[in-house]
Specification:
single chain; about 95% helix; mainly alpha
Length: about 70
């Protein structure tokens, strides 16, 4: 959805104005690279939050295991 609708169609319409027929050819790879960058911008912070959450849970588990019952 992101690549095809939001990136590819506008690039197919805009790039030929600057690059001619090559603009249509370059639109696909540019849309792919752009969508990969956009996805990475969302995934990397989420992975960091998830790793922090996992560390906190591991620390809580260790505290419960080491504390005397």
């Amino acid at each position: 959805m992101l690549r095809q609708l939001l990136l590819l169609v506008p690039l197919i319409l805009i790039l030929p104005l600057f690059l001619g027929l090559n603009g249509i050819l370059f639109a696909g790879p540019i849309a792919d690279m752009s969508s990969a960058v956009i996805v990475a911008l969302f995934v990397v912070p989420e992975m960091k939050k998830l790793n922090r959450h996992i560390k906190e849970k591991d620390e809580e588990t260790e505290e419960m295991e080491t504390s005397p019952a």
